[in-house]
Design a protein that fits this description.
The structure is a homodimer. Chain A is an alpha+beta fold. Chain A contains 20 helices and 11 strands.
Chain lengths: ~600, ~600
């Protein structure tokens, strides 16, 4: 059975030694001193380790069942959900006026990593709800906020997002679900939505569906799509629950992983809905939710990689097979633990150096969300730029990490018993949902690179540059500065290629978009490692009482720089090969 | 539901246009003209497409069940197995004296790809048996051959290989299963073996287990291991079945994929066994079987990638989402098929260029097996060198290909309904069994590179060199020769690094072994693509009646050279970073 120990020490390092949050000028961060964040992370760790993690296998084995229109969640989920609610975790970053804790998003992210590592399928129930509540908070009317947010914040109600239909996933312009206006200002919503995570379940009193639909007579395509609130139970004036609305779960999807989360076919049969935000501007409101969701999904990649790595490490330290080629390390035992073998090390170091770099990236990214929420437009642009990288790169690499971890266990990794194979199956979805990673790469190259006339990506390069400049002053940074500089140059060269050749033929840019997303991701993790290295070097210079932690951090970072960053050259070479090799064949010639 | 169409056209191209088998000097190849191989491949295709493929999902859903010591295979498997037997496929490459068809191993490989693409879990029943029979053929006594081979060749009996025990997988020196000699020359075998594929099932009259065990008093470690034949039912003098032997299935493993194949715990309880080959030389006999099995596993990577690609392609040609950025391709439809999008193309071309290159590599590799069987020692050395590359690289990339194919389908790829997720789960085991891919890389760098004092790898480089030299004479080969030359240089540089730095510290070589396996794999596929390109250019120059096939082949190859071969530079950079980054941490510091 897999185990999980929440990485509070590592998170504290990123929050305080690297990001120095308590000293930063982000509104609300002043309260986040070491003791305070330690207390929060410690409590979250308990919930994750003791309540959620033991249910991870249970959720996978039992899955969800649809019985007479009701979805039964796996045994224990409802209790665990009650404990999550009681701890106030769902509303940790929601303003106090709606019943939340009013902490920064950063702390939602940090605690969220733990919950996802412990039980990804379970945490999706609150994760989706969190996104839906956020969209209502940003785009809803005062009355809508008053009606829905307190309940969604305390978790007594949950929320969902309803985009996909059988004929349209990525291309939302093809949406057919209809919303006919009624005299009382509400709408009659009819249509079918598929792949609705947590669309129906037995853990909350009400479910608030956010539904994309067309108001008849509006423009075709995405310009005629509006967003509606469609509650499972109508809500009376006094806030009590009224009649069951015309929405029901028509089936559950059988799928590769996240069995503990109900993936529902949702049928809207003249259901009562309420327009949220402006008519025909539904995409804008939906993107509010989706962007937050995309960061959350990137974090899922990290979180599944993190727990898989932990379990691979435990196995590698225990399992005795073969002898260290340079001399037995466990001479009195029948064999040495497999962690002595260089190729097992390589595998573990790939996992470890990714996980720790990715954790820093997610937390750093979260600081931009908090800045943006406080009105910082440049921060908002920066997180817009980084979102497809965090979503696409971290889920690809997070999945890869679970596969590497599974490999560490050899045959045991393929068995259900050891639980690694579940991490692989669960992590796989993160590369697909909330916009496939291919779509992320298009968003990055087609939209985000050109944001503010390219100023945002230039601001990113400036940050890297200033870290490189500072590195010159610090002994021990050479192993970080050189590879980061080279990788950053590759990224600049790729960006130039897109500008020059993409103008001639957009396919030249689009054919390299996926490689660019990975190139950017490597630069981001290299950048994070440079910053972590600097923090560790400073801690060591200052005579830290935990030198082992920082020496390990530095060695892990050097591994990433030496063994992962060279990948940027291959991505650049692929990008520069342009559209010709990719587009040469007719569709019929494949 | 996924579909499968066997790639007979592509196989014919490799066999006849590239390998020119009918004109080659390999014994037995003279009969393999185009019509003859077309007939064989056509018949195998029918079995694969019409009988095996429809059972693939069935096997996954039903799995195997252990009831009162008997393993029930999925519905339909026994019938399909009877059809496979009736067609003579199991013994296609077995000499006629044992009841086989006496065809070259090459044809076993080609037809095997189809069977594995159609139903990997099913084909393992005959695949393992084929390996066990091969070991008996190579190492058994005349009496053992006479008793077991005809039955295993006609498929009325199957065979297994029993290596792993709970405390030992890779490190077979830790084996505890005991074989005590009896007065009649037989042995009493006792112990437990785990992860025994097809260890027990209901499709054959008898199961012939090949079991590694220790004869008491022998040397410790791998030097004291012998190989035994332990039949499920004892065989009477007249060949009829006698008493049930003391071997039984104690449980089935619950696992990520290949559910249709029974992965058994096998308990040997004073079972009667017969020594095969020499006492204490069991590893040698086992390796005969394992090397063949490793090639078969490499082919599984290819085969699962191939069927996954076919289904991804079908989806990409049908699914309408979005518009081609350079102008609508399906203006009268609601959207264009997604194959118009460059990033979908990139994904499909990665799949296609791998699959076709890998197919050529497996078939080319099989020719060395046939040469080796005819006594060609250099061919035997060459396939020994290539085996870890074929096993490790093709299964890693084959798995990656199934993941890419799954990604092509977006959300549908995650659902059970579309079947892509099964290919991913099934393909995953191939990276693990028959020696994990980490072990393959150690075998490659630690043993195979130095084979015959390095002459074998030099012979490989010579083949590449002569292809490069010939390429100079042929218009159109530039796009192939340049990248292949660069990749081959990277491989030579890596080999030099191992020689120079590996002598100083073996960890310098072992830390780069995995990257070297992939570097070598890229060179192999680049080499195959150069040879295929040449064949297609010649066919076009000769006025082939199928120019479209050859133009497509060339475009696919150019893609591989432009987009995949640059990867060798990254592998070389990693290799050259040496042991330090990999080994820096103490085991306790992770």
């Amino acid at each position: 059975m897999p185990t999980y120990a929440a990485p509070t020490r590592d998170m504290q390092f990123v929050l305080h030694d690297v990001l120095r949050i308590a000293e930063s000028d982000v509104p609300g961060y002043g309260d986040l001193d070491r003791d305070f964040t330690a207390a929060i992370l410690g409590e979250a760790a308990k919930l994750a380790e003791e309540v959620l993690q033991p249910l991870n296998r249970v959720g996978d084995e039992h899955g969800c069942a649809l019985e007479n229109g009701v979805v039964r969640t796996p045994p224990g989920f409802a209790d665990a959900y009650a404990q999550m609610r009681a701890g106030g975790w769902i509303g940790i970053d929601v303003p106090e006026e709606f019943g939340g804790q009013g902490l920064p998003y950063l702390m939602y992210s940090a605690t969220g990593e733990m919950f996802v590592s412990a039980n990804m399928a379970f945490n999706m129930y609150q994760g989706l709800s969190h996104g839906a509540a956020y969209a209502i908070r940003m785009h809803g009317s005062a009355a809508q906020k008053a009606t829905f947010l307190p309940k969604m914040t305390d978790g007594s109600w949950t929320g969902t997002m309803n985009l996909t239909e059988p004929q349209c996933g990525t291309d939302l312009g093809l949406i057919r679900t209809k919303a006919e206006p009624l005299d009382d200002g509400s709408y009659r919503v009819s249509g079918q939505k598929i792949w609705i995570s947590a669309g129906e379940h037995d853990m909350a009193d009400n479910i608030v569906h956010l539904v994309l639909a067309r108001i008849p007579g509006g423009p075709d395509g995405v310009k005629g799509i509006s967003l509606f609130i469609v509650p499972k139970f109508l809500v009376n004036e006094d806030g009590s629950l009224g009649d069951r609305n015309g929405v029901s779960c028509g089936g559950l999807e059988s799928k590769m992983g996240i069995h503990g989360n109900a993936t529902c076919v949702m049928n809207y049969d003249g259901a009562t809905g309420y327009l949220i935000g402006e008519m025909h501007k539904g995409m804008r409101a939906m993107f509010t939710m989706m962007n937050e969701a995309r960061l959350g999904v990137g974090m899922q990649g990290l979180a599944q990689g993190a727990v898989a790595y932990q379990n691979a490490l435990g196995f590698a330290q225990d399992r005795l097979q073969g002898r260290d080629i340079t001399g037995a390390k466990n001479p009195n035992g029948p064999a040495d633990p497999i962690i002595v073998h260089p190729d097992v090390r390589r595998n573990l170091m790939d996992q470890k150096s990714f996980v720790e770099g990715a954790r820093a990236l997610v937390l750093w990214g979260s600081t931009f969300i908090d800045r943006a929420a406080a009105g910082d437009a440049e921060a908002e642009a920066m997180i817009s730029l980084l979102t497809p990288v965090i979503k696409g790169f971290l889920t690809d690499k997070g999945f890869e990490t679970t596969v590497l971890a599974q490999q560490t266990l050899g045959g045991s990794g393929f068995t259900t018993e050891w639980g690694l194979e579940q991490f692989v199956r669960d992590a796989r979805i993160a590369m697909i949902y909330e916009g496939t990673n291919g779509i992320q790469s298009l968003d990055l190259v087609g939209r985000k690179l050109g944001l503010n006339g390219g100023k945002t990506v230039m601001a990113f390069f400036e940050m890297v540059k200033s870290t490189l400049a500072e590195a010159k002053e610090v002994d021990g940074m050479e192993a970080f500065a050189g590879p980061l500089k080279a990788a950053s140059k590759d990224m600049q060269a790729a960006s130039m290629y897109f500008v020059e050749e993409g103008l001639k033929n957009p396919d030249n840019a689009l054919s390299g978009s996926y490689d660019f997303m990975h190139l950017f991701g490597h630069v981001c993790l290299g950048f994070m490692w440079a910053r972590m290295a600097r923090a560790s070097l400073e801690a060591l210079a200052a005579g830290t009482d935990d030198p082992g932690f920082h020496e390990t951090k530095l060695a892990t970072g050097r591994y990433y720089m030496a063994r992962q960053l060279p990948m940027t050259a291959t991505h650049l070479a692929r990008i520069r090969s342009g559209a010709e090799p990719v587009m040469a064949l007719d569709a019929a010639s494949f």
